[in-house]
Structures are given as C-alpha cells and as structure tokens.
Design brief:
It is built from 10 helices and 2 strands; from the N terminus they run αββααααααααα. The chain has helices at 7-16, 40-55, 61-72, 77-98, 104-116, 120-130, 136-148, 152-164, 169-184, 189-205, and strands at residues 22-23, 28-29. The chain has a two-stranded antiparallel sheet. The chain is globular.
C-alpha cells in the first residue's frame, strides 16, 4: 500500500473530518463496507494507536484514512499498522517543525511534505516566512515540488519567495500543480520550477493576476500573461 496519502485527500479529510469512521476516546470503529475487515487484534492495536495520537493532540482523520486505504488495497495487517505508525511520526515531526499552535490541516500538509522527501528545516522556513498565516497551501506546493524531483532546499526557497511576494495560497498551489504537470509531460523538474517562477515574477512585475498553466487551463508548457520567450524543454 502507498506510504503517503495524496495531498488533496488529506487536506479534504483534515478540513471536514472522515464520516466513514466513528472515533471516541474509548473506541474506534473502523469501516468495513466495501473493504477487507480487520481482525480483532489489529483493530485493538490500531485503536490504541489512534487513541494515543488523539491524546497527543494529533489529527486522527488521516490515520483513519490510512487504515481505510489499506483495507481497500487488501494490505496485510502488519503493513497497515506500519503505515499508520509512520504517518503518526510524520504528523508529530510536522508539529515539532511548525509549532504546537498549528492547525490540523497544516499538520497534515506538513506530514505530506515530509513524506514526499522534504525535511524539517524546509517546513520551518515556510512557517517563518508565513508568520501567522496558514501554511497548508504553501506546504502542499512544497510537497508537490519535492515529489516531482525538485531538490528540497531549492523548492523551499521558491515557496518562501512566493510567500514573501504575497502570492495567494491558491496561486501557490497552482504553481505546484503546474510543475507537476510539466514533469508528467517530460520536463526536468528544476527547469519547470524555474520557468514557472519566471512566469509568476513577470506577471507580478506587470501587475497581472498571477497564473500558471495548470490542467484545464491550457495544459503543461504554456506561457502565462506577460511572459515571453520559450517553454521548458521536455526530456528527449
């Protein structure tokens, strides 16, 4: 089973909760509809894990989603427990890096970034640049950049630069999506990220609305407003 849930899934779960499960401090009832049922020993162990996470103030919805993922994929019980334990560690590490006042969505996004290969220093840099502003979207973009192959330090600096330029959260996420789309089309990750940054810088210098050509808006490798000259090169 996948070790790292998708960012979109986690952000959604953290924002609205997971109605497929019933969780309380005494009991965790795992959903079974359309998925493999867990044996009693595994349920008891996972209940302890989820209860421990809740007692430490960590969001439990992504943990429950990880269990559900394992059930649907018919993963072995030990693999489900291992994946849940690894996610707990990432959530805890994200809170350490981002601060105890971080909300659930920020912690989930931070854990996702760590799962993609980012490190704690990158998360701290994004938090420091953002101040009191929510960092879920910048961390989501960071996760996308690192997952596509942009080196962590460079990816973090790009996200910090966008934050300092007051680029909106939705536009920061669009930047990450655009790079991901480019890489899927064969463009080298760093080359795509630099090209997309130049698009944003050109748009800001002209006072235009920041745009990056994401799926549904012209696809990969398209120039944005105010940008002249070339597109990222696809791999041969």
């Amino acid at each position: 089973m996948s070790v790292r849930p998708t960012l979109a899934t986690l952000l959604f779960l953290a924002a609205i909760g997971t109605p497929a499960y019933r969780a309380s401090s005494q009991q965790v009832a795992f959903a079974t509809s359309g998925a493999t049922e867990l044996d009693s020993a595994t349920q008891a162990a996972l209940t302890r894990d989820v209860t421990q996470a809740r007692s430490r103030g960590l969001p439990v919805e992504p943990l429950l989603a990880k269990v559900r993922e394992g059930q649907i994929k018919r993963a072995r019980p030990e693999r489900i427990r291992s994946a849940v334990a690894a996610l707990m560690i990432r959530l805890d590490s994200a809170r350490t890096a981002l601060g105890s006042a971080s909300n659930a969505t920020e912690l989930v996004a931070g854990a996702d970034a760590l799962g993609a290969g980012a490190d704690a220093s990158a998360l701290r840099a994004v938090r420091t640049a953002s101040g009191a502003r929510d960092v879920a979207a910048p961390l989501g973009a960071l996760a996308q950049l690192v997952a596509t192959g942009v080196p962590t330090r460079r990816a973090a600096q790009m996200i910090v630069d966008l934050i300092r330029r007051d680029v909106s959260p939705s536009q920061v996420l669009a930047f990450g999506v655009a790079v991901e789309t480019d890489v899927g089309a064969g463009v080298p990750p760093t080359e795509s990220a630099l090209f997309r940054m130049r698009q944003i810088e050109a748009s800001l210098s002209l006072g235009d609305k920041v745009t990056t050509a994401a799926p549904g808006a012209g696809g990969a490798l398209q120039n944005g407003p105010g940008v002249s000259g070339g597109t990222p090169r696809r791999r041969p």
